[in-house]
Amino acid sequence: MGWCFFSTFITILVFFSVNSIPGSVLGSKADQECKFPAIFNFGDSNSDTGGLYAFWGEMPAQDGMSFFGGPVGRYSDGRLVIDFIAESLGLPYLSSYLDSLGSDFSHGANFAFGGSSVRFPNTIGSIPLTLDVQWIQFLKFYNTSQLLRKRGGIYRKLMPKPEYFTRALYTIDIGQNDLTAGYFTNKTTDEVKAYVPDVINRLLNVVRNIYSFGGRYFWIHNTGPVGCLPYVFVRRPVPASLIDEAGCATPYNEVSQFFNSILKEAVVQLRKDLPSAAITYVDIYSIKYSLFHEGRKHGFKELIRVCCGHGGQYNFNVSLGCGVSIMVDGKPVLMGKPCEDPSTYVVWDGVHFTQAANKFVFDKIGGGTFSDPPFLLKMACHKKNLQAH
To answer: A single GO molecular function, which one (predicted)?
Structure first.
């Protein structure tokens, strides 16, 4: 009760404190590219660029090996989809809000945190940084960043301009952990489906909060096919009759599709409720599933088998994950080794995608084919034929 009151109080307080934020939006013509000056991202480990790393302080040494030369807070061998989004918009990679070392927030911030969910988790050892908490962090970031800007000097260079908050692209990629948490606590598919509407409502409430704050441009990813990820179907196997031709567990993918159908319907209503917003719904599921179903057509050799791991049919073991060593004769021996060429693999560590797979996903969503409305990423500030979708 106390936490709910505090959260509501902070939201109301900050909302009235930001009335001075310029309310102007981009006055682009329908055929003109948007000039997003910043990105503010909310999500889980699929788009975390350093939050969990800053909190925990340890990552497998193999993470980041293909691009950054070592771990930089990303659960992949290189860049994530959010990195490619930033690149395509001519913006620097997003620094995590929680990372105090060498961060540059001049063009946005990343509030995503590995393991995060929309709802507060009820399992021991789970991550408490829900989407609501990320929203509160965003509010604090706005107030603090603008106070720092007033100091001038380096602070002015490292913090976003106040008008960026109304002109920024707000990206959201979360929900996967809400689904898997249910299965990992032995819930049935019907029980998981039963709480999906609540997850969607909570997600959309954060969008409404951002809109009330002044945000107008939203890029919302649906959730991917969790039934194709070894960390799900190895941990909770299904009968062979429930494995599809791509090697994925159909019950878990059906839940992902159910989540996505509810989300898409809710976004349609949200557009009516927030008439000044440009909200793009992005079908990440279809793109990711195509990698598992026909990835070899796109140059991938290993579709479900894990690049960085150890043991079993899928090179995945819950206890011997990527970068994990065991003691042999008093000496550490690396068991969770990376594959020789991550660019030929879809799955990096059993949970996340390789840089090559992330690039494939971005190339698809950037072109607008999998977006509703079907805009290019660079046109996501526009509204066109929204009522038709």
So the answer is: hydrolase activity, acting on ester bonds
Which two structure tokens, joined as six digits, stand for 117?
Answer: 């969910």
Is-contact 169 219, C-beta < 8 A?
yes
Region class of 22: left (phi > 0), else alpha (psi between -120 and 50), else beta? beta
Region of residue 64 (left: phi > 0; alpha: psi -120 to 50; beta: else): left
CB-count burial class (<10 Å; 0-12, 13-18, 19+) for 327: exposed
Rounded to an integer, what distance in angstroms lies between the CA atom of residue 261 and that of residue 249? Answer: 19
DSSP 132: H
Q: Taking Cα atoms as reference points, which of 38, 42, 28, 26 lies closest to residue 168?
A: 38
Number of other residues whose CB lies within 10 A of the CB of residue 313:
10
Count the neighbouring beta carbons within 10 Å of the beta carbon of residue 253: 23
CA angle 183, 186, 191 (to 5 degrees): 70
Q: Taking a C-beta distance cutoff of 8 angstroms, is the pair 73, 95 a contact?
A: no
Run of H or E including 305: strand 302-306
Residue 104 is encoded by which pair of tokens? 């540059």
CA 87 to chain centre: 16
Catalytic residues: 45, 349, 352
List the structure tokens of 227.
């039934």
pLDDT tens for each residue of 179-191: 999 999 999 999 9
Q: Tell me the C-alpha distance between 203 and 206, whole Å.
A: 5
| All residues at 6 or more sequence positions from 310 whose CB lies less than 8 Å from its CB, including other chains | 316, 317, 320, 321, 324, 335, 336, 337
217 contacts 277 by C-beta, under 8 angstroms = yes
Question: Residues 161-172: what's their mean pLDDT?
Answer: 98
Distance between CA atoms of residues 76 and 320, nearest Å = 17
Determine the residue type at 161.
Answer: K
Q: Does residue 209 carry a pLDDT above 70?
A: yes
- Position 386 scores a pLDDT of 42
